[in-house]
Amino acid sequence: MFKSMFKRSWLSITRKTSRTIILIIILFVMANLMLATIAIQRAVVESTDRAKASLGGIVYLQPDMEKVRQEAMKDAQSLGGGNFRAQIKRPNIPIAIVMDIANSEYVKDLTYQLNASANANSFEAIDLNADLPAGAGFRIGGPMGRGDISITGINAYDFIAGVENGSMSLSSGHPFDESTENGTIISYDLADKNNLKIGDQITLTTTDETSPKSITLDIVGIYDSTTEAPNQQNMLYMNVQTATQFLLEEDYIDDSYSVGDVKFFLTSAEHKDAFIEQANAKYPNLADDKLTLNIDIAAYEQMAGPIESVGNFAAVMLLIVIVASVLIITLIITINVKDRRYEMGVLMSLGATKKNILGQNLAELLIIGTTAFVLSILPSAFVAHAMGNGLLEQQVATSQQNQQTGMPMRGMMGSGGMTTQGAGPGGGPVSFMGGNPFRSDVETIDEINVTPSVQDYLILFLAGYSIIILALVIPTANILRFQPKIILTGKE
Fold first, then answer.
1. Residue 125, CB half-sphere, CA atoms under 13 Å: how many?
2. Residue 278 backbone dihedrals phi, psi, to 5 degrees
3. pLDDT over threshold 70, residue 353
4. Which residues are CB-contacts of 33 (< 8 A; sequence separation ≥ 6)?
5. Cα dist. 171→153, 214, 223, 273, 396 in Å?
């Protein structure tokens, strides 16, 4: 009986060629779409894993400006509503907390900086108002109304924002490090104006009105910058220890001072949640101090956002293909089973069991399905590659368009009559939103290797056979539940 079952299956396949060809074409198309979506999802997972590894995981310790603004607005309303401006006071980030949080097994490096200002003494600062027309509505002065020279102290030259994004580089000299005592790098424009070169010394005067001090620095490097930020030409960079000499007395007490732009570079992006949980457990009052630890999701979204959209689309498409395949194949099998009611009734009356008949129909579909799946192996790689990279190209273009048309963040003046109060440590410049410390130097993934693997083919065959079985059971079981006499009577 088992041998005759396969013989009848083969005869049914070869005699009804039109039905066989239709099923092969449907299963062939289904297999190509399924294989493409499966391969795309696997490629997306691999690419996102590489993106996470390349970013390495960056966590920022920042003032929670949203909470600060909300409290400022409440204070303004309690003092008279619209008659008062909400004064935004940035919370400080003590260096001691930064170093303590950095003392973690999850941290491989960190960076932080402080801003200060001073007045040029032995040289002349660049007059940034020289090219402004007479009667201009604004004038560019020193940082936040303090000295005419801006100072940025940072723990490593390589972590300067301009160096990271490629807009700043040394034209001569060498970078400073934590051991560079009283060394600084200055802008090319400032050096050119004052005929300064590597090895020269410059003297600056602190902005302390009660007891100003003169501090001499060695020029160790001269940099070029393409940025047009205010006072960039008068910006001096140095290590943090050197920069602390320019802080006001109230900002530098017992070797304690506040810093900004704090970044923790983790050993792995997978440790982000564990690190943040550890830091919050060590300092449970961070939220009360209006400080927050933020994961660098901006760089990840810029890098892997489009490819994740492709993965989501592929997942939805896979579900649609499976559901559509089940419905279409079920419909075809239902029509075929109804046409073969009489055949089933005769076979059952001759002693064939319901399992034999079900096995015959299943054998037919498995032979047809296997043929379609094997044939799909040849073009599947091309289909998967074309579909994956076509979808990714579309998503990348959409992402770039959204970035170009996106609304810029507001600067020093916020909505609702809010103004910032004070400045950064030592009178250095600060931004209303605390700047944008998130990385912008990452490249969007614009190509993926969508090549089906052996595992993808195994998943295809397993899923395809499952769809065939599911599509076969319902209509066949509906017929076989009757006795042969009833089936034959229904045929007649």
1. 26
2. -65, -45
3. no
4. 317, 321, 383
5. 20, 28, 5, 41, 35
User: Is residue 292 scored above 80 in pLDDT?
Assistant: yes
Which amino acid is present at 71? Answer: E
How far apart are the C-alpha atoms of 481 and 492, rounded to whole Å?
18
Does an H or E element contain 221, and which?
strand 214-225
Q: Distance between CA 185 and CA 238 in Å, rounded?
A: 7
Cβ 163 vs Cβ 224: under 8 Å = no
d(CA 122, CA 415): 42
The pLDDT, as a whole number, for residue 5 is 59
Reported pTM = 0.57
Angle between helices 454-480 and 354-405 (to 10 degrees): 130
pLDDT in tens, 329-347: 778 777 776 666 666 666 6
Q: Which of 213-227, 359-373, 414-428, 463-477 has the lowest mean pLDDT?
A: 414-428
Specify the DSSP element, H or E, that contains 337: helix 297-339
> b/e per residue, 53-72, with b = 16+ CB within 10 A?
eebebbbbbbbbbeebbeeb
| Per-residue pLDDT reduced to its tens digit, 96-151 | 999 999 999 999 999 999 999 999 999 999 887 655 555 544 444 444 447 899 99
For residue 52, what pLDDT band results from cuts at 50, 70 and 90? low
CB 201 within 8 Å of CB 254: no
Contact (CB, 8 A) for 444 and 302 = yes
Instruction: Look up residue 368 and give its two tokens.
Output: 């047809």
Mean pLDDT of the chain: 76
Strand partners, 152: 115, 237
In this structure, the dihedral spanned by the alpha carbons of residues 214, 220, 226 and 231, taken in order and rounded to 10 degrees, is 0
- Return d(Cα 164, Cα 113) in angstroms, integer: 14
**φ and ψ of 91, to 5 deg:** -70, 150
What span, in angstroms and rounded, lies between the C-alpha atoms of 414 and 437? Answer: 19
Identity of residue 6: F
Candidates 479, 475, 467; CA nearest to 334 is 475
What's the rounded Cα separation, in Å, for the pair 375 and 310? 26
